[in-house]
Amino acid sequence: MLKVEVYRYNPETDKTPYMKTYEVDTEGKDLMVLDVLEMLKAKDASLSFRRSCREGVCGSDGVNISGKNGLACITPLSSCVKNNKLVLRPLPGLPVIRDLVIDMSQFYAQYRKIEPFLQNDTPAPAIERLQSPEDRAKLDGLYECILCACCSTSCPSFWWNPDKFVGPAGLLQAYRFLADSRDSANEKRLNGLSDPFSVFRCHGIQNCVSVCPKGLNPTRAIGHIRNMLLHSAT
Amino acid sequence: MVTTATSFGRNGVADWIIQRFTALVLASYTLFWVAFFFITPEINYTIWQELFSQLWMRIFTLLALLSIAAHGWIGLWGVVTDYLTTRMMGSTGLVLRMLVLGIYAIVTIAYLVWGIEILWGAK
Ligand code: SF4
Ligand code: SF4
Ligand code: FES
């Protein structure tokens, strides 16, 4: 039997959060963490968590799995169970709504701040804005982000200043538009990022890189933004 | 924003550049002393006096002093705006921040003035 400790908190009935221990029979299979959560839910319907696609595409089931943020649906037990024990907590740093469900408003507010949409004032061509294959290639490693928040909620700078530091997820997307040859709002975008918090709170610890379930590298993107800021300032 | 107003260069880019530049100055100043002690067999008052009677040494030392002041200010400002935030502590955060930075400013300015006096005051 696998021991599973789960963070429980129902603000309507619990004064404080607590850890509840369950036992699950995995029949020796290397299940995904989400499968275990579903088994727990069948036993105890009061347990709350988010999930949708169950294949690492939607980004809704980011949780803290035995101390490391990740997507429950694509994290096999073999990679996270130690001494026959699995510990599940909500993503750290954001307010808990209930059990493993967190309030992501702060995360989305930062995403909104970087204006994650293509901006171009020149007259639109008849069919479409073309881009060379080389320019298109610059967006690889950026556009794949599914906004699961695993990175931003593993970043100490985001924990301390979620209202001022854009965080790795938002900055990766900021660079995705800065790097896009079809976008012409670079100057405005950079102006909005030059304060001491938005970008410069990143200290390059790379927690974000180590947890991203899509294998993306926000730290590198942040470095590119910083270089662009330095160039535009000199 | 109250917190932004106390940042050294009032702009993240300027802060970042100042932080790197002052780090370089401090590193070279440290290296200079290591090298100096290494190549000087015996240090006595005359050697010391001669070294500090040269203008470049005084300017180099002054630059190092100014760099410590600026580097420490930006660093400390970064630390207190991480851990003593209004978001977590309410107005206590602001009071503590101002207190810590205020003490740092007083101590640093005192050392700076003292340092300048030592460098240019002595005959
Ligand atoms: S960068 Fe990676 S960890 Fe961060 S939100 Fe996007 S997919 Fe998730
Ligand atoms: S590299 Fe930057 S964004 Fe990534 S976790 Fe560290 S401080 Fe946060
Ligand atoms: S359920 Fe969609 S990413 Fe895990």
Question: How would you describe this structure to a colleague?
Answer:
The complex is a heterodimer of chains A (234) and B (123). Chain A has 8 helices and 7 strands, in the order ββαβββββααααααα. With 234 residues, chain A is α+β, with helices and mostly antiparallel strands. In chain A, the strands form 2 sheets. Chain A has a 5-stranded mixed beta sheet, with helices on one face. In chain A, a hairpin with a 2-residue loop joins β6 and β7. Chain B has 123 residues and is an all-alpha fold. Chain B has one domain: Fumarate reductase/succinate dehydrogenase, transmembrane subunit (3 helical TM bundles of succinate and fumarate reductases, Up-down Bundle), CATH 1.20.1300.10. Chain B is 85% helix and 0% strand. Chain B is built from 6 helices and no strands. In chain B, α2 packs across α4 and α4 packs antiparallel against α6. The N terminus of chain B is likely disordered. Classes of the chains: A alpha+beta (234), B mainly alpha (123). At the A-B interface, α4 and α8 of A face α2 and α4 of B.
Question: What is the secondary structure topology, with strand pairs?
Answer:
The complex is a heterodimer of chains A (234) and B (123).
Chain A: E1 2-8, E2 18-24, H1 33-43, E3 62-65, E4 68-71, E5 85-89, E6 96-98, E7 101-102, H2 105-113, H3 133-137, H4 156-160, H5 167-178, H6 186-191, H7 207-211, H8 218-233
Parallel strand pairs in A: 1-5
Antiparallel strand pairs in A: 1-2, 3-4, 3-5, 6-7
Chain B: H1 2-5, H2 12-39, H3 45-53, H4 55-83, H5 86-89, H6 91-121
Helix pairs in contact in B: 2-4, 4-6
Bound molecules: iron/sulfur cluster (SF4) (2 copies) and FE2/S2 (inorganic) cluster (FES).
One iron/sulfur cluster (SF4) is lined by residues 145-151, 168-169, 172, 212, 214, 216, 218 of chain A.
